[in-house]
Amino acid sequence: MSEAIESSTEHQGRARVALTAALASGPSHAYLFRGPRGSGKSLAARAFAAELLAVGAADGEDARRRAMLDPSPHPDLVWLKPGGAQHMVEEVREKVIRAASYRPFEAEKRVFVIEAAEQMRDESQNALLKTLEEPPDFVHLILLTSEPAQLLETIASRCQPIDFAPLPPDAVEAQLAGLGSPEEISAAARLSAGDPARARFLLSDSGRALRVVALDWVRAVGPASADARARRVSGEAGPTALSETTSPWMGLLKLAESAGEEAEETTRKALEEEAEVGIKRSAKDVADEAKRAGRRRRTDVLDLGLELVGAWFRDLAATASGAKEVVFNSDLLAELDAGPNPDPSPVRRAAELVQDTRRRLDLNVSEELALEALSFRLAQTCR
Description:
By secondary structure, the protein is an alpha/beta fold. The protein has helices at 3-8, 13-25, 41-54, 60-68, 89-98, 122-133, 153-156, 169-173, 182-191, 196-202, 205-221, 226-234, 242-246, 250-276, 283-320, 333-337, 344-362, 367-381, and strands spanning 30-34, 77-80, 110-114, 139-145, 160-163. It has 2 domains: 3-165, Rossmann fold (3-Layer(aba) Sandwich), CATH 3.40.50; 204-381, no CATH class. Strands 2-3-4-1-5 form a 5-stranded parallel beta sheet, with helices on both faces. The radius of gyration is 24 Å and the shape is globular.
């Protein structure tokens, strides 16, 4: 077994077995590496590509070494990443579809890797079909995706799937040294769903702020805040801003909007810098791509905030059931323990309501109405 494949799939037993078997029996012309962000798909794809490019090479070890570099100088490895919110159609056509017709420069194989393949437009995916259906014998394509449902079925069905699972919390923790206290790092790893990049975000200033507003919302409507809400109604709690009492979800929405605006501006600047070095895009293309990046980031942050809300209710249920060892918010176990409601049924229902709202937002319903409705339903459920 290749040492690079073994190390890159340390926590991915199924993927390791599949890739090792492929090298032993003869690799397919196309693969779909699918699994959550941070699960190691990119590193495994690079290691697998290195083994393919070593076949027939005059110096196999040197071919592997160059293929493992990022960016790689190996002329037969093409690695395509989206420049902005989506892959550019012309880049897919030029760097993959047309380039796949050229014979290898060095040995017997050429490898094309498309990272975040779900970000190809339908036009690009349809254009790629012929290459997937009738590739030259020397071509291998590897598509990486965290959202396989966004790929056309005609694309997915022509690739051999290699499945990656979320990393376990201890593997994520190992990548977070120095980013917070041990308790905070442990909680971030558990809340990250196996994604080290998400865990690092949760330990950043922006991530900490997101977690604060998510938990403030929970405390405003959840069972732990019942006494406080009663005092507020009776006037004992003192003056509180109207936005805090009537719309506890507004903090989450504002953070998502701010993150979207920042991503839009960052993408616009990056695209304008690319234009200065000769990558041509119209002003409309730049504006549209920047807006798509902003919307994607806004949606991602809003969804993560809702996931944090749902995780708290799930943790309340786990604590009430005596399963403290599985809570996500492990750094706030004392507060979870102090929850006044020993019956886990209402908070389980609350977690289900959050999940239902996340699904509704995928259908492009009004965010404000969906969040306001969720807030009301959570308060009713947790009374």
